[in-house]
Design a protein that fits this description.
43% of the residues lie in helices and 11% in strands. Helix 7 packs across helix 8. Among the domains are: 12-206, Lambda Exonuclease, Chain A; 224-280. It has 376 residues and is an alpha+beta fold. It is built from twelve helices and five strands. Strands 1-2-3-4-5 form a five-stranded mixed beta sheet. The protein has helices spanning 12-15, 21-25, 33-53, 68-88, 145-158, 186-206, 227-234, 249-280, 301-310, 324-331, 333-340, 367-375; strands at 96-104, 113-121, 125-131, 166-173, 178-185.
C-alpha cells in the first residue's frame, strides 16, 4: 500500500497558507470516515470502467458502496475522458494515456508525490484530470495547488520527451455538476514552483512558520483544537451584540466575514467534546451527557402494513413523482430533455449575501428581490 505524503497534494491549499499545519496534523487520527470510503470506491469503479473502455486489463473492484448514482456518474466521467482523448488526437496521432499515475514533485516539495486519476500527454500539452466524487465543497481548477502539483509531477515525467508548452488541469465533480478547466503556460507553472511553492514547502516540511486561520482549516485534522483558529473566530466576541443599528456598517461587515467559520468551528468543538465524553469518559467542567431528543419510527414497515390493512385501514400509502434528478437518471439526460424538458423550470434563487470573492454575478436590480418575494 502506498504511504501518504506528509505534504500531500490534496492538502496543499492548507499547508501553503498555514505552513506548520502539516506536521501538526500528524498528531491526530484520520477521521475522514464513510464519505472518504465512498469516494475511494467511486475512484476504483471509474478506473475499472476507463481501463475497460481503453481495452486494458483491470480487476473489477468490490462494490461495497455501489449505487445507481455511482454507476451514472462514473459512466459520465469515462465518457468525458474519451471525449478529451478524441480532442487531443486532432493534434497528436497517438497520445499517451495514463490512469492512476504516480506523480512525483519532490524536486519542489520534500518527499512530495500524488496520484493523477488520468494524465493525457499530447505533443505540446499535458492534461491532468481529477475525478472528485464529493459534493460538500465545490472545487475549482483555477490556481488549484493540488492540480498544479500534479501538473509539475507530469512535467517531471514527460517534459524531456515531449515539447510541452501548456498544462491543462481539469476537475470533474459530477455530483455538483461541476466541470472546471484551467490552462496554464509551462513557464508560469515553473515560476510559481520556484518562487512560491519551494520555500513554503520547505517551511511546511520542517513544521515551521506561522499558524494562519482561514477557509483552508475546513478539513484540517487539528482544526478543532487549533489555538490560531480559536483566536480568529473569537475575535467576533469583541462586539457587544445589541440591535444591529447600534453597530457601525464596518462592524457588521467584520462580523459577516467571520460568522460562517465561527458557526462551523463551534459545531466542531461541540462534536469533539461530545465524542470525548461519550466514547472516552472525558468530563468537561460544567457539562454532562444526557439522552437527546428522538422521533418515533416503525420497527418493521411490513408488519405495520399488514396490521393496518387487517384492521380495515387500506388508505395508508403515499405516492409521489420522482424528483428531477432521479427522473434524469432514469431516462438519461438526452431523453429527459426530449420528453420532459418543456415541463422543467428553474425558479430564481433566494437572494444571498456572500463575499465579493464569490464568482456568482451580483444582483443589481432590486426588482429581482420583489419578484422573489411574490413567487414565495
Amino acid at each position: 500500500m502506498m504511504k501518504h505524503a506528509i505534504l500531500s497534494a490534496s492538502g496543499a491549499h492548507r499547508w501553503l497558507k498555514c505552513t506548520p499545519s502539516a506536521r501538526l496534523e500528524l498528531e491526530f487520527d484520520d477521521t475522514s470516515g464513510e464519505a472518504a470510503a465512498e469516494g475511494t470506491a467511486a475512484h476504483e469503479l471509474s478506473e475499472y470502467k476507463l481501463r475497460n473502455a481503453l481495452n486494458r486489463e483491470c480487476e473489477k473492484p468490490s462494490l461495497v458502496y455501489h449505487s445507481d448514482e455511482m454507476e451514472f456518474h462514473t459512466d459520465g466521467y469515462v465518457q468525458y475522458i474519451l471525449e478529451v482523448i478524441e480532442e487531443v488526437k486532432q493534434k497528436t496521432k497517438d497520445p499517451l494515456i495514463l490512469i492512476e499515475q504516480r506523480l512525483d514533485f519532490s524536486n519542489y516539495v520534500p518527499e512530495g508525490f500524488g496520484t493523477g486519476d488520468c494524465v493525457i500527454v499530447g505533443n505540446d500539452v499535458v492534461h491532468v484530470i481529477d475525478f472528485k466524487y464529493g459534493q460538500g465543497v465545490l472545487v475549482e481548477a483555477e490556481t488549484n495547488p493540488q492540480m498544479m502539483l500534479y501538473a509539475l509531477g507530469a512535467l517531471n515525467l514527460f517534459d524531456g520527451i515531449y515539447d510541452i508548452e501548456q498544462v491543462c488541469m481539469t476537475i470533474y465533480q459530477p455530483r455538483r455538476e461541476n466541470l472546471s478547466v484551467f490552462t496554464l503556460a509551462k513557464e508560469e507553472l515553473l515560476d510559481w514552483a520556484n518562487n512560491v511553492l519551494q520555500s513554503k514547502a520547505e517551511l511546511a516540511f520542517a513544521g515551521k512558520g506561522e499558524y494562519v486561520a482561514g477557509d483552508w482549516c475546513r478539513f484540517c485534522r487539528a482544526s478543532v483544537k487549533c489555538r490560531a483558529r480559536a483566536e480568529a473566530n473569537l475575535k467576533v466576541a469583541k462586539y457587544e451584540f445589541k440591535k444591529p443599528p447600534l453597530l457601525a456598517d464596518e462592524e457588521i461587515a467584520d462580523i459577516l466575514t467571520s460568522i460562517a467559520d465561527l458557526t462551523k468551528w463551534t459545531n466542531e468543538i461541540t462534536s469533539y467534546a461530545t465524542s470525548a465524553a461519550v466514547n472516552h469518559g472525558k468530563e468537561w467542567p460544567g457539562f454532562k451527557v444526557v439522552e437527546g431528543r428522538s422521533i418515533r419510527k416503525y420497527t418493521n414497515e411490513k408488519d405495520v402494513e399488514e396490521a393496518a390493512i387487517k384492521a380495515g385501514y387500506e388508505d395508508i400509502y403515499k405516492k409521489s413523482i420522482l424528483t428531477i434528478t432521479n427522473m434524469e437518471k432514469l431516462m438519461g439526460k438526452s431523453k429527459f430533455n426530449e420528453i420532459l424538458g418543456q415541463f422543467v423550470m428553474k425558479p430564481k434563487g433566494k437572494p444571498t449575501l456572500v463575499p465579493l470573492s464569490d464568482k456568482r454575478p451580483e444582483i443589481k436590480n432590486i426588482s429581482i428581490k420583489n419578484e422573489f418575494m411574490e413567487e414565495n
